[in-house]
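Input chain follows. Return structure tokens only.
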Amino acid sequence: MIRALWTASSGMYAQQLNVDTIANNLANVSTSGFKKNRVDFQELFYETLRATANNTAEDQAAAGNIYVGYGVRTTATQKLFFQGPLEPTDNPLDLAIEGDGFFQITLRDGTVGYTRDGAFKLSGDGRIVTSEGYYLQYDGEGLPENATDIDIGEDGRIMVTVDGEEEAQEMGQIMLVRFVNPAGLEAIGRGIYKVTQASGPAGEATAPGSGGCGTIQQGCIEMSNVQIVEEMVKLIVAQRAYEINSKSIQTSDELLSLANNLRR
């Protein structure tokens, strides 16, 4: 009965983390570029209460082993990087990656971050930046102040039409990178990821549409890949699992109470 208390409590801890993860997914259902999280569980060790005396076929057929488990634990929470739906915005600086790949951005400390959130803007010096002001890395300089039209092709080429000129000028090239194991990236918030040993180093930067990278869709935003109905079902299952584990603790407590109240 004491064993049951600890086993059920491990289940409650695990389901609490599961509910926390689902709540974060639902909170970011409208966050552009957000990738849902999934909790992975693993059973704990087993105690052998009875084992066969010998390994002969006769002994194994006569009496089976008796094992009892000690509950569950959380092994990982991983990001699922499948494609989210694309939402048209008609904003020329809204870019969505259709397929694999990440944008490269320069963080405050000078290191490189990676993101799928393509809600970009122009800074005062004409550079393409994120909502947090991080520079998007691309081959080229800032866009001219008198630019009247910005066209970014599927291959990442930035074409700008300047006031007073009819022919567009190429101002740079956006490059994308891929990872061997994107689920191993470290999420640091604001839709930004950093390289870890689990993710492996970023592959060679290539033009969109080549090297296994997807293409860029201008005037679109990749929305969250969270599916509300699926998350709500998971939330109900996690809630019921939490309740049944709490019921196991209550039942074990009642059995212990009965044992303590035994009299001759």
